Amino acid sequence: MNVDHLIIGQGLAGSLLGWRLIQAGRRIVIIDPAKENASRIAGGLINPITGMRFVKNQNAEVCLSHAKRLYQDLESTFNTPFFLKKKLLRFFKNAEEKTAFNKRKNDPAYQPFFNHVTQDNTQIADFSCPFGAIEQHQTGQVLTARLLAQLQQFFINHNSYIKTQLHYSNLIVKNDSIQWRNISAQNIIFCEGYHGAQNPWFSWLPFQPAKGEILTLKSTISLPKEIISYGSWLIPEPESTFKIGATFDAKNIDCRPTVAGKNNLTRAFEKINPRLGSAELVAHRAQIRPCTLDKQPFIGYHPQHQRLFIFNGFGAKGCLEIPWYSLLFYKHLTTQSASIPSQANINRIYDSHFTG
Ligand SMILES: Cc1cc2nc3c(=O)[nH]c(=O)nc-3n(C[C@H](O)[C@H](O)[C@H](O)COP(=O)(O)OP(=O)(O)OC[C@H]3O[C@@H](n4cnc5c(N)ncnc54)[C@H](O)[C@@H]3O)c2cc1C
Fold first, then answer.
1. Using CB atoms within 10 A of its CB, is residue 268 exposed (0-12), middle (13-18) or buried (19+)?
2. Residue 193 CA: which ligand 1 atom is closest?
3. pTM > 0.90: yes or no
4. Considering the chain, what is the average pLDDT of its residues?
5. Chain centroid to CA 45
6. Buried b or exposed e, range 107-129, using 16+ CB within 10 angstroms
7. Are residues 120 and 256 both part of a single domain?
8. Segment 148-203, tens digit of pLDDT
9. What would the pLDDT profile of 75-113 be if each residue is shown by its tens digit?
10. Do 36 and 23 share a structural domain?
C-alpha cells in the first residue's frame, strides 16, 4: 500500500495533524497501540494566562482563534460537542498574587482576557475566596477523550488506522521512501508524546517529560459553573462530578497514580472548601506530558534523513497549541505555503547539536 504520510501516535498531536492531512486529500496511516495516553486523560483546559505572574501564552490570540475554529469544525462534522466554553475563576492564593494581577490588569494586551474582580472574603458556591478572584475570559474545556475516540473511528473508516506499537527496528528508511510492513510512505511523522525521548532519530532533542495526576470526584458540594483555578484547577462536570488536576512531577516518570499525588490535589482545594477531602473518588489517573527544556514544541525534520519528521513537545498546553501548529505544519508539508515558526522548529537545536 502506498501512502503519503505514516503518522506514529494517535494522541491529540497525531490526531489533529492526521485530520488536517486527510481534509487536504492526503493518504495517511496512523499507528497507535490504543492505550491510555496524556491526551485522553488531560483536563482539556484551555487557559492562555497562567503562572504566578499571570503571563500570556506566546501567540495566545492566534492559537485561541485556530483552536476554536478547529474544534467547532470537528463539532459540526461529527455533530458532537468537543469544546465547552467555560469561564475561569482564578482565586488569588495570597496578597502577592493579587498584586501581580493588579500590575497586569491595565496592560491593553491583557484586557480582552479579564473580566470583573470579586471582592475579598466572598463565597462562591461552597468555596471561600479570602483574597478575591478574577474572572477570566477566553477559557474552556476540550473533551479530549471523546474527540480522540471519534477521530479514531474516523481514521478506521478511512482505512487509515493500525492498532499496534511501532518497533523502530522494523522501519526501513530509504532515500526515496519509508517502508514499514507492506506500507510504503513518502515520509513518517513521529507524534509519540513523551515516548519521543526514546526515538533513536530524535532522542537528542531535550525532552523534559513531566508526570501529571488527575482525579475525578463526586460530591454534593455546590460547585460554581466556572472552572476554578487555585494553583491547581477544578473543572465542574455533569452529575455532581468534577475533575481536579494536575500534579507536575519531573522526577518520577511513570504512569502510576500515587497517594501523595491524590493528597496534594485534594489538600490544595480543602483550603477553600474543607468538605472536598471527603468527596467520593471516581477515578485517579496518571500520565506523562511531553514537556521540553525551552517549553517550546519540537517540529521539523531530521537533519540527516529528510523523510523523518517530528511533531511533538506540546507540554502542558496541547489543547491550545496543537490546532495552530498542526495548521502551519500540514500547510508546510502539503504546499510549503507556511513555514514552521522558528521558536518551534527543531533546527533551533540541531544547528548547535550537529554542527557543534
Ligand atoms: C494529568 C494531565 C493533565 C493535563 N491537562 C491538560 C489540560 O488541561 N490542558 C492541556 O492543554 N493539556 C493538558 N495536558 C497536556 C496534554 O495532555 C498534552 O499537551 C497533549 O495531550 C500531548 O499530546 P501528544 O499527542 O503529543 O501526546 P500523547 O497524548 O502522549 O500521545 C502520544 C501517542 O503516541 C503513541 N506512541 C508513542 N510511541 C509509539 C510507537 N512507537 N508506536 C505507536 N504509537 C506510539 C502513544 O501510545 C500515544 O497514544 C495534561 C497532561 C496530563 C498528563
1. middle
2. 27
3. yes
4. 96
5. 8
6. eeebeebbeebbeeeeebebbeb
7. yes
8. 999 999 999 999 999 999 999 999 999 999 999 999 999 999 999 999 999 999 99
9. 999 999 999 999 999 999 999 999 999 999 999 999 999
10. yes
Please tell me the distance between residue 39's alpha carbon and the centre of ligand 1 in angstroms: 4
Q: Can you tell me which atom of ligand 1 is nearest the CA of 40? A: 29
Determine, yes or no, domain membership for 165: yes
In a domain, 231, yes or no: yes
Q: Which of 59, 123, 79, 119 is nearest to 317 (CA)?
A: 59
Whether residue 200 sits in one domain with residue 265: no
The Cα-based distances of 348 to 64, 187, 290, 354 in angstroms read 25, 22, 18, 11
In a domain, 233, yes or no: yes
Which domain, by its residues, includes 105?
88-136+210-289
Same domain, 131 and 155: no
Q: How far out from the chain centre does Cα 267 lie?
A: 25
The C-alpha cell at 82 is 468537543
Final residue belonging to a domain, choices 289, 315, 345 = 289
Say whether both 300 and 246 belong to one domain. no
Ligand 1, from 195, 232, 329: best to mutate by most atoms within 8 Å of Cβ? 195
Tell how far the Cα of 298 is from the centroid of ligand 1, in angstroms.
14
The percent of residues in the chain predicted with pLDDT above 90, rounded, is 94
**Is 77 inside any structural domain?**
no
Å from CA of 287 to ligand 1 middle: 8
- In the structure grid, which three cell numbers stand for residue 143, read together? 473533551
Number of structural domains the chain divides into? 2
| Site residues for ligand 1, CB cut-off 6 Å | 8-14, 31-33, 35, 37-39, 41-45, 165-166, 191-193, 195, 212, 214, 245-246, 287, 289-290, 312, 314-320
Pocket test for ligand 1, best of 83, 161, 289 (most atoms within 8 A of CB): 289
